[in-house]
Specification:
The complex is a heterodimer of chains A (292) and B (81). Chain A has 292 residues and is of the alpha/beta class. Chain A contains eleven helices and nine strands. In chain A, a hairpin with a 2-residue loop joins β8 (229-238) and β9 (241-246). Helices cover 42% and strands 0% of the residues of chain B. The chains are: A alpha/beta (292), B mainly alpha (81). The interface between A and B is medium-sized, with 17 and 18 residues.
């Protein structure tokens, strides 16, 4: 039965990708918005999670406004998926800077230009994070840590379609320490999403004022290697127009109190995420049980 | 530092890196650190604790491939601990 479900999901995904590939961008985006709105109507549980999260984060106190933001968030991710899939035909090494506003802190820009220096880039499921990783890989290779999907067929499809340029993925459960350290030693960018609930080994730190179990690996990697850790994000401004923002590197020396060191880093990162999500709430992935 | 002293200190350090219920008196230099609940990602905790406990700048990469408590002790010995 599971096999049948996975096969049907896979077939659906293949068909959707084939359609998206053949449609011109604007029609593909319009289709993505329609499908996202339909998904928003039928996906009762996800819709409720999104609306509840928006209210709990105090983005608004008005349930109708929370519902509107949640719907826009669904639409946003439909469009982002399309743009991510079509980006190979739009961007190349020579033109990408014409279409993207780069707002990089000078110290971070220097790290991106320096081939020998690794960088831990932390971000959130906000804006167009995958496209940002693809574009940043024009500076230096980017390795993203990803969770395998429950459906292995769909996972294979995603793994095949996502990587572009010098952006590659490494599955979270295979992400042994040697591989992660090797990425940093080569001077590459290790991209980690730190805004989802950490089911195990997480540290409870405030996220929008409520305790949330948070992944600690990025902070620990910074503390034990001294590799700069930096928060960045990518705002979608218009079709294939983006602003990529990278903050200055965070610098924390180990104090001997591991828990306190990690907590300080995670709290600072969460404050950055909260600020950008408050500025563009429609571009955040709200349909995730962050505070479960 | 004597082997026994290093082992005692490493036991105390590793205790802080695992949530497993371990008979620490039974831990020897031959014990595999993975059997103590210190898997590939928990090694980051171990590296932090060792760097702080021994006040030494052992590069994190040196811990790649470390399997037993003796391997960790050897790293420390190389650092003159």
């Amino acid at each position: 039965m599971v096999w049948l479900k996975h096969s049907l999901e896979y077939a659906g995904a293949v068909c959707a990708l084939a359609i998206i590939d053949r449609l011109p961008l604007m029609r593909a985006e319009a289709l993505a918005r329609r499908l996202a709105r339909a998904w928003f109507r039928v996906a009762g549980t996800r819709r409720r999670i999104a609306v509840d999260n928006i209210l709990a984060a105090r983005i608004t106190a008005d349930p109708a406004e929370a519902n509107r933001i949640a719907r826009k968030s669904f639409e946003h991710f439909g469009v982002v998926l399309v743009e991510s899939l079509k980006s190979g035909a739009i961007f190349d090494e020579h033109n990408w800077r014409d279409k993207v506003d780069l707002d990089l802190a000078p110290q971070t820009a220097a790290l991106l230009e320096e081939p020998e220096r690794g960088l831990i880039l932390v971000s959130a499921h906000f804006g167009s994070w995958e496209l940002a990783a693809q574009l940043l890989s024009y500076f230096k290779p980017v390795v993203g840590i990803t969770r395998r999907m429950n459906n292995p067929l769909a996972d294979t499809l995603v793994q095949r379609r996502k990587p572009r340029n010098r952006f590659t993925l490494t599955p979270k459960h295979d992400a042994d320490i040697g591989r992660l350290l090797g990425i940093l030693r080569r001077g590459d960018i290790l991209a980690m999403m730190v805004d989802q609930r950490a089911p195990a080994r997480g540290m409870s730190v405030p996220f929008f004022g409520r305790p949330a179990s948070t992944y600690v690996s990025a902070a620990l990697l910074h503390l034990v290697t001294g590799t700069p850790i930096c928060f960045g994000y990518c705002v979608r401004l218009a079709p294939f127009r983006y602003r990529i923002v990278a903050h200055p590197p965070l610098v924390y020396a180990p104090s001997g109190n591991k828990e306190q060191d990690i907590r300080m880093i995670l709290c600072e990162i969460n404050r950055h995420i909260e600020a950008v999500v408050r500025a563009y709430p429609e571009q955040y992935l709200w349909a995730h049980r962050r505070w479960r | 530092m004597q082997d026994n002293a290093i082992l005692d200190t490493l036991r105390a350090v590793m205790r802080r890196c695992t949530t497993q219920d371990i008979d620490w008196d039974a831990v020897t230099l031959e014990t595999e650190i993975q059997s103590l609940g210190i898997d590939s990602l928990a090694v980051l905790d171990l590296i932090y604790e060792i760097q702080q406990e021994f006040d030494t700048e052992i590069e994190a990469e040196r811990f790649v491939g470390v399997k037993t408590v003796a391997d960790v002790a050897a790293l420390l010995e190389q650092r003159g601990v």
